[in-house]
Amino acid sequence: MSRTDADTASPDLERAVRERYARGAERIEPELCCPIEGYDALLLANLPAEIVERDYGCGDPSRWVGEGESVVDLGSGSGKIAYVLAQKVGARGRVLGVDFNDPMLELARRHQASMADKLGYANVRFAKGRIQDLALDLELADAWLAAHPARDLAGIDAFEAECARLRREAPLCADEGADVVVSNCVLNLVRPEDKRALFAEIFRVLRRGGRAVISDIVCDEAPTAAMRADPGLWSGCLSGAFLEAEFLDAFEEAGFHGIEVLARTEKPWRTVEGIEFRSVTVRAFKGKQGPCLERRQAVLYKGPWKEVRDDDGHAFPRGLRVAVCDKTFRLMTGPGSPYARDVVGIEPRVAVPLEEAGPFACRGTSLRSPRETKGDGYAQTTGGGEAGSDESCC
Q1: Is 114 domain-assigned?
Q2: DSSP structure class, residue 99
């Protein structure tokens, strides 16, 4: 959805989303989003048929999640992705499915015991919440409201105060508690005015070094005003779709780095009034925030592009040793780094202790002299190894 569009989703559109997905929990809605093939058949084989049949996603973010990880699944729906993830993360991992739709939550929850018996462990739970407000547990809020009905403005104020307390003292998703946040064709259903908060919430709940893997619908041109006002198109994952470039921009604006399109359908899923709608899966990492320290490290970009630029504006010309701060060095060369396959990390011959590192001027691009890396007094001379030895070269 273009950020130049000031109009917002009306209550009628929100109601259309709730009602359509409620119907989708009870019977198959074939036109709801664009379910894909390609899921691991062995993992799907363990799932009840009604969960698989009522999948209304547009991608498979689960394929980029690993063993032992803690995952939050936004808009978990029938529970399909959550139960697939339960098998991928294993007994040491944890999966939290968050959804606002009561019939979908009931569908997902009624299979928890049988799935735990089948897998031999219970590592999944489902909670009621809005994905743009992951701190508020709506079931706790509903319980309080049932005991303290709001009959006037004072009652509304009291309820809002209780919601603030719940966010603070009993958050549904705590700060930096997840290794991965996934979602499958749900972000487009959030109101335009709430989308910035949505990305901020995804960022908040991820630990440093964590990542978001999001499958969603994007469009090549902005939907028209008439399309945005159409409840059927909105609840069908079309009217609220992001413009493709702005979808990536939203991750960057939230503070993510290493933003990458992992999958993109070439053929549009739907075309409406000449506007093409297709599925993409994007991965983005958290962790570039923090001080920049000088430890005499460098990064060499291997190619094939003549030059690339990272999310902080550093340029990396092919084949040159670019001076970087310790934080950038770790981001680009550490385990699981999205950049590691394309760069060579060059450490100094004598490591600079972290406690002795001074500030690094992390603006622009500067090269690192090999002499600076090796040290001014370095004057070693080596000879070639004998043929067949481990030191032999050529």
Answers
A1: yes
A2: E
Last residue of a domain, which of 261, 285, 309? 285
User: What residue numbers bound the domain in which 225 lies?
Assistant: 11-135+171-285
pLDDT score recorded for residue 321:
97
* Closest C-alpha among 363, 288, 279 to residue 330: 288
Number of domains within the chain: 2
Helices first, then strands: H and E counts in the chain: 14, 16
Q: Which amino acid is at 236?
A: G
> Which segments of 27-79 does DSSP mark as H helices, in order?
41-44, 49-53
CATH (domain of 117): 3.40.50.150
Report d(CA 138, CA 95) in Å as an integer: 18
CA 295 to chain CA centroid, nearest Å: 31
* Contact indicator for 259, 331 with CB cutoff of 8 Å: no
Q: What is the pLDDT of residues 31-49, one digit of tens each?
A: 555 556 678 889 999 999 9
Cβ within 8 Å of residue 224, ≥6 positions away: 273, 275
Q: Which CATH number fits the domain that encloses residue 339?
A: 3.40.5.100
What confidence score (pLDDT) does residue 264 get? 94
What mean pLDDT comes out for the span 309-321? Answer: 94
| The pLDDT of residue 35 | 59
